[in-house]
Design brief:
CATH class of the largest domain: Alpha Beta
Structural class: alpha/beta
CATH architecture of the largest domain: 3-Layer(aba) Sandwich
Distance between the termini: 45 Å
Oligomer: single chain
Helix content: 25-40%
Number of domains: 4
CATH topology of the largest domain: Rossmann fold
Largest sheet: 5 strands, mixed
Shape: globular
Number of strands: 20
Strand order of the largest sheet: 2-1-5-3-4
Strand content: 5-15%
Number of helices: 20
Length: 627
Amino acid sequence: MSLITVKVNNINVEVEPGATIFAAAQKAGFTIPTLCAWFEIGHTPGACRVCLVEVEGQRNLIASCVYPVTEGMVIHTNTGRVRTARRMVVELLLADHPQECNYCIRNGNCELQRVAEQVGVKEVRFERTYFPETGGIDSSSPSLVRDNRKCINCHRCVTVCEQVQTVSVLTPAWRGGDVKVVPAFDMPLIESNCIACGQCIMACPVGAIYEKDDVDAVWKELQNPSKHVVVQEAPAIRAALGEEFGLPPGSLVTGKMIAALRKLGFDKVFDTNFAADLTIIEEGNELLKRVKEGGKLPMITSCSPGWIKFCEHFYPDLLDHLSTCKSPQQMFGAMAKTYYAQTAGIDPKDIVVVSIMPCTAKKFEAQRPEMNSSGYRDVDYVLTTRELARMIKEGGIDFLNLADEAHDAPMGEYTGAGTIFGATGGVMEAALRTVYAVVTGENLPNLNIIPVRGLEGVKEATLKVGPLGDVSVAIAHGLGNARKIMDLIREGKANYAFIEVMCCPGGCIAGGGEPIPTTNEIRTLRSAALYKDDGGVQKYRQSHENPSITKIYDVFLKEPLGHKSHELLHTHYLARGTDAPHPLPKRPEGHKSHELLHGHVVTRGSELVHQACEGAEKDPLSPEEKR
């Protein structure tokens, strides 16, 4: 393919045909600011107009992120006209943006702040919009908060929700200056099909969407002398937390994380990896039982709560393919308030379980009404990686200079198999290690199952497992990829025994609660840290080798899939609807759009029944509205 030669700020550069001006400028060594473009997922709407450049022969300034180059094109990225236009665009955005930078959750990590500095904004010459501090904030979800006052209409959240996760909850509504991003019918998030994955947070350049903050509630519990507060941390946390303190992505900070949690005042610092090992024992035995007894196959993992809610909404007819195992987070909570309470001699009503998770959907999962098999809520509070970092900073802890410390017994011991749960393919790899050993009585010749690793959207592998013969498996991460596999199951074309699905692209290491930004390069580095922990740090690499897991079955659970295990470690799922949204009111002729789009919502069990408003005035629709 012959290259095209263009000139960027008097520098000749060769690029491929079809390349954008933005890409050509990058190749020439010039950075063009932008707010709406997100190149990793192909979102380049040219909407923000911050990336304007001047092209000789063109009357108007050009949005560089969408405009393709042509042979001999002469481009200027820093003329006075360009710089003036960019500043004006950013000033207009700032004029229509709340002046809350000092206490905004994205302060210091806000792309609007960064671009304002980059283009040289020193004042805002336009009249500022007045924003009430509460108006336009939707905090109905236990996981996410939407603050439309801060939305800059880049629509990156719309793209990730629709094209990557295929949930399509968020959409632009209204016209012109009234445009805003909302769920269908402008309903609260809790009443939509939102699966609480938080990928919209990772996409948002400002503070228009963020996690529901539970830090103050956890501080209150830590300062309550009548409460015994224990904490668990998901495997992905140790590979990402360091980024919040300036360390490079993929820095493994397990020991410092433990020390920081202890300094914050937690009575016991345990680990979700312990429960991940427990999950493998239950899930592996469940898989073998289904294979041997003709149960529903393929069996699908149930560790990712965003994935579970997605399945409940969009594939309720396939729920019996899901493993009945609770996620490691919820297994840990159930065991903390039974097994640990019993061994420590503590009344379970006085135990508070706090989870540190990379996942905003874990907040929703912890509040599911069925997650109380101990007689108490399994998990009381969930903090994201970002929330923990804020808590450490608020506590005045010098994280980078902490000496490494070790987890507490008995629920702090884990294997490398538990650690790799945080990367896509990790649950599958951990399960196959144990299933192979249980069936054959021997360990896999090589515990590194490379075909299930990596960032390919859908991965497949076949492993010969003794008398079971060839066992075919599949791995999907990101719900768009999961949908492909689920459609195959519906069509009877999925010839797998076991399928791992992780809601977020890359798995938990890129969950909605992880440090921002998260790119494919960062996903790779975080995953490598977990594999390093598995292969080079941990004494044991297979879940069934964990001495604490062996003991818990000997003295408490007795056997996998037994009565007590079923009672504490397994769950059921809820059909929440079909591919279509919940039933919505019919559009009566004559309602104005605002009156049309706000119905009364009645919660009845798992269903949301939307009832149309009655008695609204009968103003005729305009010709534009009818079109």
